[in-house]
Design a protein that fits this description.
It is a single chain. By secondary structure, this protein is an alpha+beta fold. It has 18 helices and 17 strands. The protein has helices at 40-52, 139-147, 151-157, 167-170, 173-184, 187-218, 230-241, 248-311, 314-459, 489-538, 551-625, 629-638, 641-671, 680-742, 753-776, 819-839, 860-873, 887-892, and strands spanning 2-9, 18-21, 29-34, 79-88, 91-100, 103-106, 117-120, 123-127, 133-134, 159-160, 781-785, 801-805, 810-813, 848-852, 879-883, 896-902, 905-911. Helix 15 (753-776) crosses helix 16 (819-839).
């Protein structure tokens, strides 16, 4: 199988119709490259989807709506079309498969909104090499038959997915067993183990049934009343029926004697029957011989009549032979005459085609000149429009950046205004609390001082100095009022501390408001500067003034101006491409016309010579056969060519019938030479009498045989049942031991049968893998299976891999390989797997392989060795594609499929060396 062309539309990241022609690369090893996420792996997925109806690995299946492109409109139908070839002997057969995934489409009727969609089921079609379409329901099965691989095998052989070919390297034995079961069909060995398990359980149930069967068997015995020990048998039979199995041995012994008695009676009847059978056979042979002789006499008479009828047709057959000869000669001349007519027509058509091409060539050349001039003009206009657009686009980007700065500053101003409002509210609230606390303190201070005055006044005495003023006279000392509040020094101090704390908070809130106001003023100044900068950037690009209130309208005007420039650029590019296409097509048509003129001119003399030769050949044949033209035409008109063959078949059939009847007549006459007709009635009577005597004896023998068989069967089965227990136990033990061994349940031998068989496949895979792995590592490493002596120790390790170092001459775990070494080992293993799967089927002919990523983990030398191995594989017709974004690969692989992605989806283009 080799892929020729892949077409995708509205699939994954590919919105537009994208065609990848894999016949373009000059080399068989090519690179699919592009940035991460550009759509490289989608090419891989599209090929898998076309062949198998799903993509990626079993852990990440995608189908249906997941495959519909998000870059394309719902009106665009998603599909993948794959054209590939298969070699059938020496012929290369081309197949085309087109698969449409399940997808959404806009509703045409009954839509509640413009974006209302409906579900469309997927479909598949396969165009066969003959051009006919294969039945859709059978297409998936037919594709697998053509490719010769299941999807899992194809992913291991031809489409090695990103990271998946590392799975086999890292998997333990049980996981590898699951993979190999699918790839190499080893499930039969698992079924063998399951069957052994079933048989072990069946044996256990068999042992439980033996006792019941003994009772049932005795009921099938047939007794003969004239047997002399019949009563003894009946007595023992009754004991056993009552459940006394101890009598079974005596019963079997009596039954043996009874069986011998019946046997002797049966042998006597057989002897008598054989004697009567010989007599009957002799009479039957005499009757059969008589019947044969009668039939021979009858066939002789029939043959004579038939031979007479055939001889009467001799003149008719002779006339038909003459007509056959005339028809053959006439059609020989007709063939020669038809060649003359065909040659005349060829010459006429060739002259007509030559004149037609000569007539239309001047007009095409004039039209091409006009188109070429238009192409030059439109090319200049296209370049001019592109340049203008680039300038406008760059200015629009700067203007957009300035507008973004204005938006940012404006958001800061709005934030500062909201913060000022919040902080002013906090200031008002704190100030109110402060004024209330201050008034409370003043009142408490007054009450406290009044209390102190009262205490002092109470201690004053006439003639003694006042401690405050020193006066010895106290005409009007302070007297406390009864309703005055008493305030202690502690209360006054607490009131003072509360007032002072609130005073500090009022000061803090006032400072915070001033700070935010300052920031807002700075932001306003920055806003004005940004407006000025935007105005300078806009300049005279649009006829609008930039203001702080409506700068967005200017941005919209600039974007509109840029869109118009882009539209103009696209329009001129489209016109240029159209003109270029027209010019190219006209040039091709002119070259084709000139080629045809030259071809027709050189061909015409050859065709005229062919016409002359045909005329000469016709005249020569007419003279040779001596038939006038009018005569042969009349014969051809009245008789078909096939009529001559039909006449020849009739003549041959007639000759064969004459020979057959004559030969049969002679043979029959020889058979009855010297014989007479027998007396058939007498022969029949003697045969019937012997048959009746034999039937009487045979009926008696049949009854004896039935009795012997029934009793012998009871005897044999009872005898067998007595020893069944021992035998069944022995068989059960043997099966249980075999099951434990095959299932890997024996201590020290945990490798099961299926794993043991799969080691055979893994051995062949490693043989093929090591040829590549040794080349990649310069002979440093070799992959090996765990030694069979250790494969079942503790747990099943039969398919575990080890790496052997040719330098240290030691084995170590595969997990100890570095990332790059692991990649090379996994790649070699995948290539070995591909060899083994392909070798397992002569019908598989894969001339292609894709490898998705992994080369980034390799150093320069390892990467060169890996590429060298792949280049060696890519010989002859084998095509190998590497999907990677590693920069160094671009320098080592000349032919590249470059994948890019923008806001409209993914694009591809070939870069050929």
């Amino acid at each position: 199988m080799k892929i020729k062309k892949l077409t995708m539309q509205a699939f994954g990241s590919y919105a537009d119709r994208t065609v990848i022609d894999f016949t373009k690369p000059d080399q068989n090893l090519f690179l699919i490259t592009g940035d991460t996420g550009s759509g490289k792996t989608t090419i891989f997925d599209a090929i898998i989807f076309a062949l198998y109806g799903e993509v990626a690995s079993a852990s990440n299946k995608k189908d249906g709506n997941l495959l519909q492109s998000q870059f394309a409109s719902y009106n665009v139908e998603p599909f993948v079309e794959l054209e590939f070839t298969e070699t059938n002997g020496i012929d290369e057969l081309t197949y085309t498969v087109k698969r449409i995934p399940r997808h959404e489409r806009l509703k045409q009727r009954g839509a509640k909104s413009a974006n209302d969609t409906r579900q469309i089921n997927g479909s598949v079609s396969l165009i066969m090499p003959e051009g006919n379409e294969y039945p859709s329901k059978e297409t998936d099965k037919k594709l697998q038959e053509i490719v010769g691989l299941t999807k899992e095998q194809f992913m291991q052989v031809a489409m090695i997915a990103q990271g998946e070919f590392m799975e086999l390297l890292r998997a333990n034995s049980n996981d590898k067993k699951e993979i190999f079961r699918k790839l190499f069909g080893t499930e039969i060995y698992k079924r063998i183990v399951d069957e052994l398990d079933t048989r072990v359980k069946d044996k256990g149930r068999t042992l439980a049934m033996i006792s019941t069967e003994c009772h049932t068997l005795i009921g099938g015995m047939h007794l003969i009343e004239d047997y002399e020990r019949c009563e003894e048998l009946k007595s023992l039979y009754g004991e056993i029926k009552e459940g006394r199995l101890s009598a079974l041995d005596d019963f079997i012994e009596e039954l043996a004697g009874f069986c011998n008695y019946i046997k002797s009676r049966r042998e006597e009847s057989e002897k008598h029957s054989r004697e009567l059978q010989k007599e009957r056979d002799l009479k039957r042979d005499e009757l059969s011989k008589g019947e044969n002789i009668v039939k021979v006499f009858e066939s002789i008479e029939t043959a004579k009549i038939r031979l007479s009828e055939l001889n009467s047709r001799k003149d008719e057959i002779k006339a038909k032979a003459e007509l056959k000869e005339k028809i053959e000669k006439s059609y020989t001349l007709k063939d020669a005459f038809d060649k003359v007519i065909d040659s005349e027509n060829e010459v006429g058509k060739l002259e007509e085609a030559l004149n037609k091409e000569k007539e239309k060539l001047p007009a095409m050349e004039a039209e091409y000149k006009t188109a070429s001039e238009a192409e030059v003009i439109l090319d200049a206009e296209n370049k001019k429009a592109s340049g203008e657009y680039e300038q406008i686009h760059e200015r629009a980007k700067r203007i957009a950046a300035d507008a973004a700065d204005i938006d940012r500053v404006k958001k800061n101003i709005d934030k500062f205004e909201a913060e000022i409002e919040t902080r002013q509210k906090s200031y008002t609230l704190i100030k109110s609390k402060y004024e209330q606390a201050s008034a409370e303190y003043d009142q408490n201070f007054k009450f406290f001082m009044d209390e102190q005055a009262g205490v002092l006044a109470a201690s004053l005495k006439e003639g003694e100095p006042c401690p405050i003023c020193g006066s010895k006279v106290h005409p009007s000392p302070y007297k406390a009022k009864n309703d005055e509040q008493i305030v202690s020094e502690a209360v006054l101090k607490a009131s003072e501390e509360k007032r002072n704390e609130l005073q500090n908070k009022v000061q803090e809130c006032s400072e915070a408001v001033k700070e935010v106001i300052t920031k807002k003023e700075a932001a306003n100044e920055e806003f004005e500067r940004a407006i000025v900068k935007l105005s300078e950037s806009v300049g005279d690009l649009v006829e609008k003034n930039v203001s702080g209130a409506d700068y967005n309208s200017v941005i919209r005007a600039v974007e509109e101006y840029r869109s118009k420039a882009l539209q103009k650029k696209n329009d001129t590019a489209l016109e240029y491409e159209k003109a270029k296409d027209i010019s190219g097509k006209l040039k091709t048509s002119i070259e084709r016309s000139k080629t045809l003129i030259a071809s027709y001119t050189s061909e015409l003399p050859i065709r005229k010579k062919k016409l002359d030769d045909a005329k000469m050949a016709y005249d020569a044949k007419k003279n040779e056969l001596s038939i006038d033209e009018t005569v042969w035409k009349e014969i051809c008109r009245d008789h078909e060519r096939e009529e001559a063959k039909q006449i020849q078949r009739e003549i041959s059939a007639y000759d064969n019938q004459i020979a057959e009847v004559s030969g049969a007549l002679k043979a029959s006459e020889k058979l009855i030479e010297g014989k007479e007709l027998p007396d058939m009635e007498k022969l029949k009577i003697t045969y019937q009498e012997s048959e009746e005597r034999l039937n009487v004896v045979a009926a008696r023998l049949k009854q004896l045989e039935s009795d012997e068989s029934a009793n012998k069967s009871v005897y044999d089965k009872l005898t067998e049942k007595l020893s069944d227990r021992k035998r069944e136990v022995t068989e059960y033990s043997r099966l249980k031991a075999l099951f434990d061994l095959a299932a890997g349940k024996v201590s020290g031998s945990r490798m099961d049968l299926e794993t043991y068989v799969q080691r055979y496949y893994l051995e062949h895979i490693l043989r093929a893998a090591n040829r590549r792995f040794e080349d990649m590592t310069m002979g440093q490493y070799e992959l090996r299976m765990v030694d069979i002596d250790r494969a079942g120790d503790g747990k099943n390790r039969g398919l575990d891999l080890m790496v052997y170092s040719c330098i240290t001459m030691k084995e170590r775990e595969i997990k100890t390989l570095s990332g790059g070494e692991s990649f090379m080992a996994a790649l070699a293993l995948a290539l070995g797997m591909a060899d083994e799967i392909s070798a397992g089927s002569a019908a598989i002919n894969l001339d292609m392989m894709f490898i998705d990523e992994g080369f980034g983990s390799l150093d320069d030398h390892s990467r060169e060795q890996a590429i060298k191995v792949l280049k060696d594989m890519a010989t002859g017709d084998k095509l190998i594609g590497i999907i990677s974004h590693v920069t160094e690969l671009k320098q080592e692989i000349d032919d590249q499929l470059i994948v890019s992605k923008d806001e409209n989806g993914s694009r591809v283009k070939w870069q050929i060396s």
